């Protein structure tokens, strides 16, 4: 009789434990799905982001469960050089805005520039001034869902490769053949994927702080407390899964080193040794995967995930100028 009762108790306990685990599994996936949506969606209305310091315990708990909301970046500064505004159109009809500035003299070539996640073209004016000063035409592009471009959904570089292709084709069709691509973080990843997706043939590319994969970038988000309260690896795995499902691609196959195998043009990779978003192993993984034999990795010892130019102007100018001069057609 006692054995029978113990079996019943054990079965009841296991059933209860199974239900608890099932509920937890469902809840954590709901939470991951909400995080994935908010991570890859930018709101037009600044009022959606509240003052976290004024939240009560219920509001903080809800934000922890659903994730923080992000505002679409706004263009806050305009070039001091003469430029024209260019509008490109994606295959889905999104208007992509870019600034195009011609050199004051006979151009050496054109540098097309791409910003990082949650930034916009105005945040890259410091680098644009440098390229323009060196005698290059400069085009700076707002990715979809950023700056003055249309849309609210980002794919963190996956479909943004289309913007790289659109800008490249625009410049190529204008008669310029000496085209360099420069990108920071997500912009660097989009360039690498754009070369793979559209078989682009630039004269060279400058890649600053490209992350290794969507999953590694999400781990970095946890490290930076952007999604505080969650363990790094399970969180990144689940949100990678849900981000891909919600945005229509396989998030686990979104790996920069896979695309880098198709990059055969001259490459300059630059990275900050104190970068808390993109770690050393990621940089090495991407750099080693690049197919080109004409490639160089430059490390800025005192730089974080930031503008490497603004961190060390002398080093940046030397490395970039040497790279451009060496690879001009």
What would your notes on this structure say?
The chain starts with a helix and ends with a helix. The chain has two domains: 2-69, no CATH class; 72-212 and 255-327, 3-Layer(aba) Sandwich (Rossmann fold), CATH 3.40.50.1820. β5 (110-114), α3 and β6 form a beta-alpha-beta unit. The strands form two sheets. Strands 3-4-6-5-7-8-9-10 form an eight-stranded mixed β-sheet, sandwiched between helices. It has a two-stranded parallel ribbon with strand order 1-2. α1 crosses α7 (232-247), α4 (161-173) crosses α5 and α6 (214-223) packs across α7. It is of the alpha/beta class and 329 residues long. It has eleven helices and ten strands. The mean pLDDT is 89.
SSE layout and pairing:
Blueprint: H1 2-39, E1 42-43, H2 57-66, E2 70-71, E3 84-89, E4 95-101, E5 110-114, H3 125-133, E6 137-141, H4 161-173, E7 179-184, H5 186-198, E8 204-208, H6 214-223, H7 232-247, H8 256-260, E9 267-272, H9 280-289, E10 295-300, H10 308-311, H11 313-327
Parallel strand pairs: 1-2, 5-6, 5-7, 7-8, 8-9, 9-10
Antiparallel strand pairs: 3-4, 4-6
